[in-house]
Design a protein that fits this description.
By secondary structure, the protein is mainly alpha-helical. The protein is built from five helices and three strands; from the N terminus they run H-E-H-H-E-E-H-H.
C-alpha cells in the first residue's frame, strides 16, 4: 500500500499528458494551479510535472465545477480535508508512540 501511495504522489507527468487524461485544457489546468487547487513541481527546464494524485484531484475539480461549485469553495473543502488528514496522521503517530512506550515498559522478561 505504501508503494502505491508513493508512485501516485511522484510528480512525473507532463501537462500535455494530464490534459489528455483529464479532458481539461492546459489553460484550465494552469488556472487551477493559479487558484492553488493543485501544486505541480517544476523540472530543471521549468516544465510542470504532475502526479497521479494531481490527475485524480483535477478530475474531481472538473466534476465539481460542472456541478456549479466555485473554485474558492473547492479550495476551502480541500483545506478542510487536508487538515482532517493531518490531524488523523498526527493522532496515529501519537498513538504509536504511546503504544511503543507503554507496551515496551509493561513487558517483563519471563524467568
Amino acid at each position: 500500500m505504501e508503494n502505491e501511495a508513493s508512485y501516485k504522489n511522484r510528480k512525473v507527468i507532463s501537462i500535455g499528458t494530464v490534459s489528455e487524461l483529464t479532458g481539461l485544457t492546459e489553460r484550465q489546468i494552469r488556472y487551477y494551479e493559479e487558484r492553488k487547487l493543485i501544486s505541480p513541481e517544476r523540472s530543471d527546464r521549468g516544465n510542470r510535472k504532475y502526479s497521479f494524485m494531481d490527475v485524480e484531484r483535477l478530475i474531481e475539480i472538473a466534476n465539481k465545477r460542472e456541478e456549479g461549485v466555485r473554485t474558492d469553495e473547492i479550495l476551502q473543502e480541500l483545506k478542510k480535508k487536508k487538515k482532517k488528514e493531518d490531524t488523523a496522521t498526527r493522532n496515529k503517530m501519537i498513538q504509536g508512540q504511546l503504544n511503543a512506550r507503554f507496551n515496551h515498559s509493561n513487558r517483563h522478561p519471563k524467568k
